[in-house]
## 1
Amino acid sequence: MSQRPRVCVLHVGGTIGMVAHADGYRPQPGFLADYMGAMPELLREEMPEHELVVLDPLLDSSDMDPDDWLRISEEIARHYDDYDGFVVVHGTDTMAYTASALSFLLPGLGKPVILTGSQLSLTDVRSDGREHLITAIYLAGSVPIPEVTIYFAARLIRGNRAQKIHNQDFFAFNSGNLAPLARIGASIRVAHRLCRQPPPGPLRPLKLVRKPKVASLRIFPGIDGEMIRRMVEPLDGLVLETYGNGNAPSRDQSFLNALAEAIAPPRDTVIINCSQCHGGRVDQLRYGTGMTLARAGVTSGYDMTPEAALTKLYCLLAAGTPAADVRARIQEDLAGELIADPSQRPRPRAPETASPLADHDA
Ligand code: ASP
């Protein structure tokens, strides 16, 4: 029996395995399997053994929805005991959402789940996908970081801290609030102090009992109460993407009333405040324009990305959690997605909770 670690490669879709057609790039069934089968690197002794599982249908990640997050998490749970790690080959457009969702759908995860993809299809001679595949498979088998991460452009980033920041540069993902968990160069440097510890118990996939309606809304100058009212009316939850430190218009009472009415019983819509900024944290008590949101009942999302907040909101509501508990749990660190700050007291402009420094280089 081989002693090499075993990695399951789940092909979900994305540019990496796409082929150009007259109507644009589309995933091509069979292409990735043929390509990987012809990669001598994947057969080398120092590589883990791998098996490819192809999801049907293969998707451009722009076509994915919460059912697809669930499909991937169920696939991982089904094969969990058979492998030492998982690589999810996925499109870049919504990779940060899927990575975030998986981190909430798989509590108790004790093995690496690494999402990767590429900016250029493997059909392109300069594709970034080849190295991503090799390194993601290598890391999933040989570097036991028990988290959902994204491997892209020589860095391993926590999935629920990642955002797609470029659609051309190979450096396509970044985390504004957490340095990479590992940097991959001539050597592999793991930032152990940032990585989560293996959980004590077994994998406990989240059981979903309903399909809540959640949305995100990036506020903009000119937004008014009527727009909010119409948008929020059918929703169970909303991620409000605000300016800067978590600020929004405060002079338009109809805007604030629309939020307050949605949040109050009987509607009980959960509204989370996340910043439009790529880095930093929401502090609703710093400016008057944030304080009005706090008074309307908006829940601070602290330093969560909107992607993490949306998927966390979806998962909590889908698991049947009552709205009041969702508001509390949103502010708890479930999978490394935020640094909690339960005080919520007005405080002087002192340094906030010490946080691992973000990485803006490269
Ligand atoms: N539209 C593609 C996708 O997200 C883009 C990519 O993979 O880079 O599936």
## 2
Amino acid sequence: MTIPRSHPRYQSLVQREKIVEGIKNGIVALQGLIAHGRGEAFDYILGEKSHRFALEAEKAAVATMLLAKHPVISVNGNSAVLAGKELCELSKIVNAKVEVNIFHFSYERIQKIKSFLEKFGCEVLAACDAELAGLESSRRIVDSRGILIADVVLVPLEDGDRCEILKKHGKKVIAIDLNPLSRTARMADITIVDNIVRAVPNMINFARELKNFDRSELEEIVRSFDNRKVLAEAVKAIKEYLEEVASKFKIDQKF
Ligand code: ATP
Ligand code: MG
């Protein structure tokens, strides 16, 4: 489908179209439609922009990945179609591995996501030869060269259960989640409350800048980061945005 560029919701429609295309290609699970819709709703009430708290988290996330020994980017169907190319680019700059990990498991879908990502020129792990103990969902199935041994995992559009287990396994978790109320958002070490389509390009820019920094400078960025503050600011941003819209409605009523 061609979406006219002049459409006021062009960006949002392009994302929807990518998700629908992903369903047709067998990359996105049907449930991915629902997850995307929840994300869209939060993006709407955040004003569809990268707030200061998101940029702060994106910077701290990149610093954390650059400091890590085994950083891994975990990719599911939705993240692959929305930001696969950018995630691969980021992985190269910060020297992270890319691994396919999905909730609604099938070897066929794993392979499809792997081939899709390889088109962007990155090496993709998807051996499914190890398990994360303590997790019942298929998210437990991982690659022994990737998430299993990772010290830092970037998990865009994650499920709360696995986020919890990754933490129990002693890994630092960086989540990209538009819902600051989700279990994932509250459980991650660094929560990026931003749309993945804006978050990853922002992270690429930070990565280009920060890769020339000393370890001590990167450590300082991580040390001064406060995830509780970020979450509080995200919820406040939603509240303020809604109040602003409500007051405009009131003014409109007067005239
Ligand atoms: P949790 O299990 O963490 O409480 P959940 O069950 O509400 O979360 P899931 O379906 O497990 O959510 O995961 C999808 C999450 O991804 C949702 O919180 C949704 O807001 C978020 N999401 C969807 N699309 C995007 C996007 N484009 N960018 C960032 N986040 C997104
Ligand atoms: Mg969930």
